Amino acid sequence: MTALFLRDLKLSIRAGGGALIGVLFFLTIVAVIPFGVGPDLKLLSRIGPAIVWIGALLAALLGLDRLFQAERDDGSLDLMLIQETPLVLTVLVKCLAHWAATSLPLVIASPLLGLFMNMDETAIGATMLTLLVGSPAITFIGAVGAAVAVALPRGGLLVSILVLPLTIPVLIFGVSATYAAVEDPAPFLPPFLILIALTLFFAVIGPAAAALALRNTAD
User: Fold this and answer.
1) Using CA atoms, how far apart are residues 20 and 69, in angstroms rounded to an integer?
2) How far, in Å, CA of 142 to CA of 164, rounded?
3) 65 with 56: CB under 8 angstroms?
4) First to last CA, the chain
5) Of 56, 49, 54, which Cα lies nearest the Cα of 186?
6) Using only C-alpha atoms, what is the Rg of the chain?
7) Is residue 212 very low, low, confident or very high in pLDDT (cuts 50, 70, 90)?
8) pLDDT tens digits, residue range 136-148?
9) Across all residues in the chain, what is the average pLDDT?
C-alpha cells in the first residue's frame, strides 16, 4: 500500500502538471474576482471565504478523470481487480495519494489567496482548516465519477457533471463553518463537525462505490 501511494503520488504530480496546474487555476479564479466585483474591500472580505472555497472545489475537479485512467491505459486495472488486496483498500489509497498531490497544495496556497480577497487572519485560518478537513470528501466523491467514466475516451467533462452536484453539501458546510468562525454569534463547531462527518461518510461510501463501478466496467 505504501508503494502504491508513492507511485500514485508521483503519477498525479507528473500528469498534466499535477499540483502546479491546480494551484494556477485556483489562483486564476480567485485573482479575477476583484476585477469583477470592483475595489470594494468590505465586499471582497465578506465574500472571500466563499470564493476561495468555490475556487478550491473547481480546481480539485481538474484531475479527477485521471484517477484510474493510467491503470486503464496500461492494463494494470485488470491486475487491481484480481489481486488479493481488497479493491476498496486500493481505491482508498489511490484517493489519498490523489488528494495529497492535487488538493493539499490548494489548502497550502489558500492563505496567500485569502489576501487577494482582503480576508483577515481569522477568516484565512478558518478557510484553511475547513479546506483541510473538507477537501478529502471531494476526492472520495470524485473517485466514483472517475470509476464510472474510466471506460470513456473523454470522460473528464462527465466526471465534473457527475461529481459537482454531490459536492454541494461539502461546499455549504465548509463555507458555513468559515463564516461561523468570523461572525461571533454563530457557533463554529456544529457546521465544522458536520463537515468532518461528511468526509468520514464519503471516505467509506466513495471507495466502495468506486470499486463496484470499476468491477462493473471491467465486466
Assistant:
1) 20
2) 9
3) no
4) 25
5) 49
6) 18
7) confident
8) 999 999 888 888 8
9) 82
Q: Which residue has 473528464 as its cell numbers?
A: 156
CA distances from 169 to 20, 26, 41, 176, 197 (A): 27, 20, 28, 10, 11
Q: Assign 3-class secondary structure to the chain.
A: CHHHHHHHHHHHHHHHHCHHHHHHHHHHHHHHHHHHHCCCHHHHHHHHHHHHHHHHHHHHCCCHHHCCHHHHHHCHHHHHHHCCCCHHHHHHHHHHHHHHHHHHHHHHHHHHHHHHCCCCHHHHHHHHHHHHHHHHHHHHHHHHHHHHCCCCCCCHHHHHHHHHHHCHHHHHHHHHHHHHHHCCCCCCHHHHHHHHHHHHHHHHHHHHHHHHHHHHHHC
What one-letter code names the amino acid at 186? A
**Cβ neighbours of 20 (radius 10 Å):** 11
Contact 140/95 with Cβ under 8 angstroms?
Answer: yes
Cell of 22: 491546480
For residues 46 and 41, give the distance between their C-alpha atoms in angstroms, rounded to a whole number. Answer: 9
Q: Give the rounded distance of the alpha carbon of 92 from its chain centre.
A: 14
User: Residues in the chain, how many?
Assistant: 219
